[in-house]
Amino acid sequence: MSGTSLAGLRVVVSAGPTYEDIDPVRFIGNRSSGKMGFAVAAAAAQRGAQVVLVAGPVSLATPAGVTRIDVRSAAQMHAAVFAQLPADIYIGAAAVADYSPREVATGKIKKQAGRDTLTLELVRTPDILAEVAAHASRPRLVVGFAAETDNVEGYARGKLANKRLDLIAANRVGIAGSGFESDDNALTVYWSDGARALGPAPKTQLADELFDLVVERLAGAAGKERHP
Ligand code: PMT
């Protein structure tokens, strides 16, 4: 859908994976093509929003009307997102690595004769989404994604509550035609006292339908402010 339902609003979207370097030739990363997050950014721009897309390493063209900031690691994504606040809406579609090597080797780690194992010490990365939701200038709407293989509703609702989100869009991964890399997906969007199933459909269509919900939630929040 094109139009002006998000005109005047600033939307920050994260997309794609992050790569956490082990040494100059190796990294740890999550699976993600960036297609879902890029579709979200495109849909927001088509509705008239001012959109900043913070993208991990992906091979996708920048959607029309979107300002793109490329990053590699979770730490870089964290810094780039926070440099874009304040915003009206934050949507975290990125598959951020939860752990990063404590130390990055400056030279290529060589195989050691006689040793069949290699131990890496990993440290937690910052939870960008949770920090945005707890930030002093919190966006009016903070939306997360949840990629799950099982107990989709349970884990998604746990993230909704623990990260203090307004909405979470859950998708099942590990099956063909949905989740990572595919052009299509199916989402169930949860909020504190409701849920809506979207798709299966192309990610571009799902992104637009997600914004129908976002616009409804913004209108609901504005209504509550006027009629407490
Ligand atoms: O990119 P595609 O190939 O199109 O695939 C789309 C997708 C499957 C990657 C996407 O739809 C999706 O589900 N993105 C979130 C993937 C994920 O890893 O979610 P999570 O359950 O680990 O994280 C939950 C939420 O917290 C996400 O909004 C994530 O962006 C955010 N998060 C997680 C960890 C972290 N350190 N910082 C974060 O902000």
Write up what this structure looks like:
The longest helix has 24 residues, at 203-226. This protein has one domain: 3-Layer(aba) Sandwich (Rossmann fold). The strands form three sheets. It has an eight-stranded mixed β-sheet, with helices on both faces. It has five helices and twelve strands. With 228 residues, it is of the alpha/beta class. 39% of the residues are buried. It starts with 9 loop residues before the first strand and ends with a helix. The radius of gyration is 18 Å and the shape is globular.
Number of spatially distinct domains: 1
Task: Provide the succession of SSEs.
Answer: EEEHEEHEEEHEHEEEH
Widest sheet, order of strands: 5-4-1-6-9-10-11-12
Distance between the termini: 32 Å
Task: Assign the CATH architecture.
Answer: 3-Layer(aba) Sandwich
The low-pLDDT segments are: none
According to CATH, what is the topology? Rossmann fold
Count of individual beta strands: 12
* Overall geometry: globular
The first-level CATH class is given as: Alpha Beta
Radius of gyration: 18 Å
- How many helices does DSSP assign? 5
Give the name of the CATH superfamily: CoaB-like
Which structural class do you get from the secondary structure elements? alpha/beta
Mean pLDDT across the residues is 94
**Sheet of most strands:** 8 strands, mixed
Q: What ligand molecules are bound, each kind once?
A: ligand PMT
Range of strand content:
25-35%
Give the helix proportion (percent range).
25-40%
